[in-house]
Write a structure and sequence with these properties.
It is a single chain. With 297 residues, the protein is of the alpha/beta class. It has a single domain, classed as NAD(P)-binding Rossmann-like Domain (Rossmann fold). 33% of the residues lie in helices and 12% in strands. It is built from eight helices and seven strands, in the order H-E-H-E-H-E-H-E-H-E-H-E-H-H-E. It has helices at residues 10-13, 63-74, 88-100, 115-129, 153-174, 200-220, 247-250, 269-276, and strands at 54-58, 78-83, 105-109, 134-137, 183-187, 226-232, 287-290. Strands 3-2-1-4-5-6-7 form a seven-stranded parallel sheet, with helices on both faces. Strand 4 (134-137), helix 5 (153-174) and strand 5 form a beta-alpha-beta unit. Helix 2 packs across helix 8, helix 4 (115-129) packs parallel to helix 5 and helix 5 packs parallel to helix 6. The protein is globular. The mean pLDDT is 98. The protein binds nicotinamide-adenine-dinucleotide and magnesium ion. Nicotinamide-adenine-dinucleotide binds at residues 27-28, 58-59, 61-65, 82-84, 87, 111-113, 138-142, 162, 187, 189, 232, 234-235, 237-240.
């Protein structure tokens, strides 16, 4: 298979997915996803863009976070991985990829909706990696609900605690440990700008993540720490079949994008690498869309 630099037609670079009906409990596993997602295992070629950096990535076991972990390791970074204990199997397959790239992998399972765990996550990552230069706040939950009258307060709270409260706890714990040149990268979503009617709680957290990124970017700019976000469009990950979408939307997932297909996690990694590296030195408080043509406003 060609690497990420080979010129080719983006419409056919990855297949238009033939997605069978499927459901997993939350959090979904990549190992059970049908068809399998592509995290760049066969295609991502590094070139020393993050040599010697130390990165913490939440939700690094699967989907976008897994693709970012593989790319960071191949660019020369050591990686601490956050994920839920139920995802150990997925996490171990990414550990193998990081170690095959000759880098250190640190596994840190736990629930980031808990503030004390977030502090422990950051402290342990910095201790085990002997520093912390990059934090990727990528973990998130998405459970569809078609009617606000059926959307429970428990779900509303849990989505906010995981998607945005944790981002605050983790950033706050990490910033005092980060040197000048360090970067924070948050995972927002096209949902911040074009919310689906069935993702009220999720889309609201993604709007908050965009505002948090703009504001924290400004606040930390004079300190030499940059803060940016990536806003993905429809990407084929275990988030989607684990109640991320109603079944009728799941089987056609991504086809509405102008590129005509769902994106693969591998297609997200280069944006995170760019924002993590010194190449993006004048970019902060910014959101990069990776949406298959659905574009940010
Ligand atoms: P994913 O399921 O592979 O990754 C999400 C990860 O979040 C899980 O692997 C899990 O480890 C972690 N997580 C969830 N709840 C947690 C908790 N309480 N404690 C610790 N970890 C927890 O799916 P993904 O699509 O790769 O999601 C990654 C990010 O991308 C999420 O923030 C998601 O909102 C965002 N995103 C995804 C899409 C898409 O279409 N897949 C689009 C826009 C944004
Ligand atoms: Mg996972």
């Amino acid at each position: 298979m060609a690497d990420q630099y080979s010129m080719q037609d983006p419409v056919t670079q990855y297949p238009k997915l033939d997605i069978p009906e499927q459901r997993q409990d939350e959090p979904g596993l990549d190992s059970k996803l049908e068809p399998k997602a592509d995290h760049g295992e066969e295609t991502y070629r590094g070139s020393g863009r993050l040599e010697g950096r130390k990165a913490l990535i939440t939700g690094a076991d699967s989907g976008i976070g897994a693709a970012v972990a593989i790319a960071f390791a191949r660019e020369g970074a050591d990686v601490a991985m956050g994920y839920l204990p139920a995802e150990e199997e997925d996490a171990q397959s990414i550990v193998k990829q990081i170690e095959a790239a000759g880098r250190k992998a640190v596994t840190l399972p736990g629930d980031i909706s808990d503030e004390a765990f977030c502090q422990e996550l950051v402290e342990t990552a910095a201790r085990e990696l002997d520093g912390l230069d990059i934090v990727v706040n990528n973990a998130g939950r998405q459970l569809f609900c078609e009617d606000i009258l059926e959307l429970s307060s428990e779900q509303w709270r849990a989505t906010f605690e995981t998607n945005i409260f944790a981002m605050f706890y983790i950033s706050k714990a990490a910033i005092p440990l980060m040197p000048k040149g360090a970067t924070i990268i948050n995972t927002a979503s096209i949902q911040a700008y074009q919310p689906s009617e069935s993702l009220l709680d999720y889309a609201s957290t993604k709007g908050a993540i965009v505002a948090f990124t703009h504001g924290l970017g400004k606040q930390l700019a004079p300190k030499g720490i940059r803060v940016n976000a990536v806003a993905p469009g429809p990407i084929w990950t275990p988030l989607q079949p684990s109640f991320g979408q109603p079944m009728e939307k799941l089987t056609e997932f991504g086809q509405q994008a102008p590129i005509g297909r769902a994106g693969q996690p591998a297609e997200l990694a280069p944006a995170y690498v760019f924002l993590a590296s010194q190449e993006s030195s004048y970019i902060t408080g910014e959101v990069i869309g990776v949406t298959g043509g659905q574009h940010l406003p």
